[in-house]
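Section 5: illustrative case.
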């Protein structure tokens, strides 16, 4: 499951940043390729050279590096199969929850199309703060995998909940994310989505209020799990998920024909389209 997989480890400015070194070693021992993205605050705790030595790859930490032009955040986001941020500070949680991208790590996170695993670490009172807890709820709602902190002695000398999760728990979360990506590897999935429209005349038609969101979400999820996906879509304003091939249709008849054309190709058929219940027996030319 791990061999040859691509994992980005994001490191933020927490005293627990030193624990990321062991995480990187553990991921590499399992056969995965690791790239590290640090914040500038993290570089105050552990030098980039340490992570470069352990990962075997160049460490990225500047949004505007002093080298030739390169859209680094896009390149890194496209490369990764899983992004894990460990440790994740309260500052990172807040930025990620509202879409702020003012450094390389938050920019890569916003651009990522892969699963994102987040392991927070901070003082117990910070972790218990309602603002932080609200940000955690937002991230979970957005699909981030949270590996919550544990009880223990903290850098402040106090004992409470805020300590970075055990290495094994973080590795399990990464492993689950990698496994999810392979659930449909090699399978071919056909999805129908959106509404259909049936003409009454050149001006009027029968339809419904379906947005197509369910079908598009199914197509995106299947693609994320490694499937080759064809999406037969009725009229909608939604953006086609990355990596999904779309077949545009308008009427129920066109949708039927497109489905039949691909039926022998697919292993899985998910019919989420809202096909209209009636169509005129005759379409008026005027």
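Designed sequence:
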């Amino acid at each position: 499951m791990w061999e040859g997989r691509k994992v980005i480890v994001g490191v933020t400015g927490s005293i627990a940043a030193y624990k990321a070194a062991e995480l990187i070693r553990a991921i590499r021992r399992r056969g995965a390729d690791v790239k590290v993205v640090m914040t500038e605050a993290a570089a105050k705790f552990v030098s980039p050279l340490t992570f470069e030595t352990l990962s075997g790859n160049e460490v990225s930490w500047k949004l505007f590096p002093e080298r030739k032009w390169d859209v680094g955040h896009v390149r890194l986001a496209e490369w990764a199969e899983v992004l894990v941020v460990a440790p994740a500070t309260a500052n990172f949680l807040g930025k990620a929850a509202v879409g702020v991208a003012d450094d390389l790590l938050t920019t890569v996170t916003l651009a990522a199309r892969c699963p994102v695993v987040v392991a927070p670490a901070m003082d117990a009172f910070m972790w218990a703060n309602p603002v932080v807890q609200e940000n955690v709820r937002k991230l979970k709602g957005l699909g981030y995998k949270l590996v919550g902190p544990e009880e223990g002695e903290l850098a402040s000398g106090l004992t409470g909940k805020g300590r970075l999760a055990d290495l094994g728990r973080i590795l399990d979360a990464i492993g689950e994310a990698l496994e999810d990506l392979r659930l449909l590897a090699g399978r071919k999935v056909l999805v129908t989505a959106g509404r259909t429209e049936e003409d009454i005349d050149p001006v009027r038609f029968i339809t419904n209020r379906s947005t197509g969101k369910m079908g598009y979400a199914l197509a995106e999820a299947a693609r994320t799990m490694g499937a080759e996906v064809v999406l037969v879509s009725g009229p909608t304003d939604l953006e086609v998920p990355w990596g999904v091939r779309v077949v545009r249709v308008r009427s129920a008849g066109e949708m039927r024909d497109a489905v039949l054309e691909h039926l022998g190709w697919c292993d899985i058929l998910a019919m989420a389209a809202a096909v209209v219940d009636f169509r005129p027996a005759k379409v008026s030319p005027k």
